[in-house]
Amino acid sequence: MAQERERGITIQSAAVTFDWKGYRVNLIDTPGHVDFTLEVERCLRVLDGAVAVFDASAGVEAQTLTVWRQADKHKIPRICFLNKMDKTGASFKYAVESIREKLKAKPLLLQLPLGEGKAFKGVVDVVNKEKLLWNPNSDDGKDFVRNPLLEMSDPELLKETTEARNALIEQVADLDDEFADLVLGEFSENFDLLPAEKLQTAIRRVTLAQTAVPVLCGSALKNKGVQPLLDAVTVYLPSPEERNYEFLPWYKGDLCALAFKVLHDKQRGPLVFMRIYSGMIKPQLAIYNINGNCTERISRLLLPFADQHIEIPSLTAGNIALTVGLKHTATGDTIASSKSSALAAARRAETEGGKKHRRNNEAERLLLAGVEIPEPVFFCTIEPPSVAKQSDLDYALKCLQREDPSLKVKLDADSGQTVLCGMGELHIEIIHDRIKREYGLETYLGPLQVAYRETILNAVCATDTLDRTLGDKRHLVTVELEVKPVETASVMPVIEYAGSVSEDLPTASQEAIENGIHSACLQGPLLGSPVQDVAVAVHSLIIHPGTSTTMISACVSRCIQKALKAADKQVLEPLMKLEVTVTRDYLSLVLADLAQRRGTIQEIQTRQENKIITGFVPLAEIMGYSTVLRTLTSGSATFALELSNYEAMNPQDQTVLLGRRSGLTQVL
């Protein structure tokens, strides 16, 4: 993307397929910026292994933790690569220590760097006791020599490497019993005689078991250390056959794939990226989308080589395919070969599930866990250049939403404006930029606003009756319910029914009640923001025969709004976790500025020359912080933000906020 080249960051994940020493590798490059966490989440769903890339001068950063946790959640074996070894301030020892301390992982040092910072010229392979030196004049890193370490030429380095190898052998033996038996049996006298292949096999086992992580180092700028990294990927990370997914036996070799990304191409229309778990995909194949309950046809099948796509006749399990011609498939959809195949798999799942007393909802069992989409925290209005262009803007936003599910678009009922909801300032800025470049629309963004939430502080009962006659039909509903706060944080209202209500309640009426409750909780009484952390108890419900479900929903909704208005109300604001990296000279300035922003500081750590401030700041106070921080520190500080949770606002701030909102409405 043009934006990626300009900013020098990854925004969208890109898929590449390449061959390395007889292996086919499907690589997905994911973003590291917090605004694009969703991109990482949906790619991890379809990976078998991962390479976590660290900046050797910074070690584990705020976003590294987030991504590491996501990989833990999906149980993905990984390798660590300490990049930027040629950067001033790079420290191999510090970075490894931070992996041990902050990620609570066990690093296995498979390499040692030869020099750090400007002096970095290559790496030592600890397993094979070899040194790899790159030609300093080669820009693409292809030109390097691999020599065994000899007592004559490198006595010091050989001693250091032998110690590192012995430490590695002991570490692996502690984690792997089979290897421990081998070491203690045959090679207890002299670890040097232990063949490299045996050690590699044991490292592979502990990597796949996720009890430890191999650590390699290098510099991507001149491709130093990239070849040994690719070797490590093929040696230590799992192949698709080694990941045992519980749903595979149900499909019995039939097609099962997950659509994990949608791109819009001007010429070809929507391109859908799929990970094939079993079966095979061919062009002109009809496939069945379980989530959308629809059948579609794949017109062409492509293999992604970065920004070039190569057409291919078929693709088998374990691969990542790019399909053309699917109009309705969206991110997170599960694909099967046909409806009957999906039902057969559901039956197999059910018989197996029955044995294990698992949930037996057929469709749900089959859906590969889709992608959890985080709630947006920023929103702003977007205006087309003229009313005539509104339909073009709607189309552009519809395409962008299919590509990026973390972007939400809604219509403001009061003003009729289109509202964009996103994950951060950068996210919204890039969407704005893409509409301009890719769809040729000069749009106008309103000021950024914060997505507040609301809740109540006490329980309130309310009753409501709706009595309407439409034509010759009388619709009559009387409802009595109670709204009360709940301790546990829940975005959706918790719904309870009194025994007398739930006994003979038809499903249609129950759905209507729940729709009414959900729609009423979307707009709170204070700011019109969603209401969370509430429970609704329906005490009594009298429905006249022949009353439509719409009327039931309307009555329940009105009753909830009545109850919410009567309760003591509280605004909840998003609290961001902030990490600022700053030099000692500017520390006091940054701390003073954060205090003005209602920030609370948790800890201040020292990382080499820098201080790391960790704390929490309300999102409303951190708008445009990057510019302020640059000015304060003459551009030397960096910061990372992520949503922590929603906190109750204190009464003074809440009064100021409400005053500002009502003041604005009067001006308008």
UniProtKB/TrEMBL annotation:
SMART domains named in the record: EFG_C, EFG_IV
Keyword Transmembrane helix: no
Pfam families: EFG_C, EFG_III, EFG_IV, GTP_EFTU, GTP_EFTU_D2
Compartment(s) of residence: Mitochondrion
InterPro entries linked to this entry: EFG2, EFG_II, EFG_III, EFG_III/V, EFG_V, EFG_V-like, EFTu-like_2, P-loop_NTPase
Signal sequence range: none
Chief location category: mitochondrion
Taxonomic superkingdom: Eukaryota
Biological-process GO terms, alphabetical: mitochondrial translation; ribosome disassembly
Keywords: GTP-binding, Hydrolase, Mitochondrion, Nucleotide-binding, Protein biosynthesis
Residue positions binding GTP: D29, T30, P31, G32, H33, N83, K84, M85, D86
Residues of the Tr-type G domain: 1-241
Function: Mitochondrial GTPase that mediates the disassembly of ribosomes from messenger RNA at the termination of mitochondrial protein biosynthesis. Acts in collaboration with MRRF. GTP hydrolysis follows the ribosome disassembly and probably occurs on the ribosome large subunit. Not involved in the GTP-dependent ribosomal translocation step during translation elongation.
Protein name per UniProt: Ribosome-releasing factor 2, mitochondrial
Species of provenance: Acinonyx jubatus (Cheetah)
